[in-house]
Sequence to fold (285 residues):
Amino acid sequence: MSTANFHSSSQTITRHWNAMGGLPFALVCPSSRGLSLAITRHLLRTTDLPVFATHRSADEKSVREHILSPLKDIDPERLKLLHLDLTSEDTMVSAADELSRAYPKDAQAYIHTAFFCGGVLHPERKPTDLDRKTIEHAFQLNVISHLLLMKHFSPFLPPPASNANGPTPAKTELSKWVHMSARVGSVSDNHLGGWFSYRASKAALNQAIRTFDLYLQQRKIPAICVGTHPGTVKTDLSKDFWGGVPKDKLFEPEYAAERLVDVVRGLDEKSRGKVWDWAGKEVPP
Fold:
């Protein structure tokens, strides 16, 4: 692995590697569209971590070319692709198995940063808009897939801290396990209503984030789980609503990715179990 200092973030990562031992890597799931694609490219461009990126396409070569096409002066071998469909637990099992075979067992490879970005929006405005199939689809992608990713990829987090008593030492740099949430998942911040299944599924995701973070604390695993709110990003998810968003609040995916990665990098023990927006401000429960 190269230790070239592409940015100051690379220096941070190298120090983390030296302090904790083993081989850190990043994971982005999924990775080939919109904001998740921008996050994948940003991590490849600004860190020296291997980046494991999931996709559901049958054409891995095209996915690789698509991700790498605008990137210059990076080692393309740092990009590792894993086939994974968020609606299929079998593909999650296969992807986790493939990841486990990527390094020798004694290499002590572990997740340094993971972004789980899957989601879908069905904008029901009134109860009569609700449809069972779209509700199930929303919960499948916005909640169930995230819970199953916890199940199958949490074993790749670093092992429990040796200190069995008391909190994780403040000087230990924590791995970051990040789920893409949304401000509309906040119950206390819901003043407009609408978007029934999206709001409900994101609120459920926020509860899952908190619960998983408590598990990490209880097991003394040197990692935190958080949610992030990227703002309104110019992707297919939000396309129908761009017209109602002020220009200075409608973000290009590349800008949103940069902001989120910077926010996540700055999170610490006090940040855990919460949802943070693109500006580093906490989204209320």
Remarks:
- Confidence is low (pLDDT under 50) at residues 1-19, 163-171.
- The longest strand covers residues 109-116.
